[in-house]
Amino acid sequence: xxxxxxxxxxxxxxxxxxxxxxxxxxxxxxxxxxxxxxxxxxxxxxxxxxxxxxxxxxxxxxxxxxxxxxxxxxxxxxxxxxxxxxxxxxxxxxxxxxxxxxxxxxxxxxxxxxxxxxxxxxxxxxxxxxxxxxxxxxxxxxxxxxxxxxxxxxxxxxxxxxxxxxxxxxxxxxxxxxxxxxxxxxxxxxxxxxxxxxxxxxxxxxxxxxxxxxxxxxxxxxxxxxxxxxxxxxxxxxxxxxxxxxxxxxxxxxxxxxxxxxxxxxxxxxxxxxxxxxxxxxxxxxxxxxxxxxxxxxxxxxxxxxxxxxxxxxxxxxxxxxxxxxxxxxxxxxxxxxxxxxxxxxxxxxxxxxxxxxxxxxxxxxxxxxxxxxxxxxxxxxxxxxxxxxxxxxxxxxxxxxxxxxxxxxxxxxxxxxxxxxxxxxxxxxxxxxxxxxxxxxxxxxxxxxxxxxxxxxxxxxxxxxxxxxxxxxxxxxxxxxxxxxxxxxxxxxxxxxxxxxxxxxxxxxxxxxxxxxxxxxxxxxxxxxx
Length: 531
Description:
This protein is an alpha/beta fold. Helix content is about 40%, strand content about 15%. It has helices at about 15-40, 40-50, 55-65, 115-130, 150-170, 190, 210-220, 225-230, 230-235, 245-260, 300, 345-360, 380, 385-400, 415-420, 440-460, 465-485, 485-490, 505-515, and strands at about 70, 90-95, 100-105, 135-145, 175-185, 195-200, 240-245, 310-315, 320-330, 330-340, 340-345, 365-370, 375, 405-410, 430, 435-440. The strands form 3 sheets. Strands 1-2-3-4-5-6-7 form a 7-stranded mixed sheet, with helices on both faces. Strands 8, 9, 10, 12, 14, 15 and 16 form a 7-stranded mixed sheet that branches. Helix 15 (about 415-420) links the parallel strand 14 (about 405-410) and strand 15.
């Protein structure tokens, strides 16, 4: 056994400061979760229920197997923008009739469930996760279509939604759509391109053009039911595969459809899961209240992996990154975790070798981010930091085993890339409330701008205005600080969610379970290069 020991002192002042800082950030998230729970607002929800309809979250709850988890994804999409946080969509991974599925539900209480730029970005990310992890896609549709004032931002890229539906079906990944209300115009292609379609009597309405448009275009006069109601599509057009009497009946039928998909996991089943030896609530105090202070990621690993058992790889070499093998909820993983923030040549070479081994062993990789980037300076440039950093980025880019990234501290500069940031297609990417990500820290960026301004003034023979520079520095630091925070980044769908540190083991376990729906293949046809 290689059980990790701990030096974390829950009675220390530093621990208390860290816990207080984390709880403050979690309180901020609670306010945003309250916005999500409110959906379109009290009056909009009341009108919706007066029509005898369930909310998006109620539909998901009834659809899922009882007492099973729902991993909500990208919940903060659109935060800080002009549309409701969440992008008028609720999405995530849940179990339906014993099958892990990606569930996407329009929220009709928010501007009729219309699709805005944040909605589209979130929807495409959810479909991407479904495709990469071979998860059946279940859509609970009720949308007025495109948010017309933003059509220039969503019409052209929105076609990708339909392309992805076709690609999922071609790949043998089932697509199921339950139509709870309007699914019109371009939205009609959502059920039109799904493998299985369920419609509800006198509630579902699917047509390319509604009665006013049809009259304007052709002069034909028709009503919504005869033009695109569930009864017509079930009896005449054949678009509806199943005819439900009400919403509960539609959800019951959907569960039966999923049960008959004959969709099984292709990946290996997990081994027995053993709880860590240290309390997970101590994760609140691992990351210091100020990211300028270093912390040991092994304290995180010890509270996340099975039995706190971690076989470290090259523990005495490249010590600012910890690499090693463990299990989480019985699933084997390789872990790459930044220790003191800076990545040197030794660390880059060590990680490159470790990634090669993980690919040979077909083992998923988890990246725990706390990095300020690759080391700079003459000595390190001469030592080959560019080629060694590039080697690490290359290894991450071409690795074919699944990656999961968890930002727990800083994630700056090219270090974000080398640790498998969003642009490097991790299967999942989550962040703690303590995380920050940007090209560099605000103070460092302000220093760079100041140096450039001073050099420019000197080159032109002009005096350097120090007062103006101080104002510029303060503005830059404030901007970078705001744009590096998790909520800002999550609002842009640069992560799949901000999670409570205490939920890390559960969230990683659910992600690994989703990954196990697909086989883990590696195309590595060569031996391991010693770096």
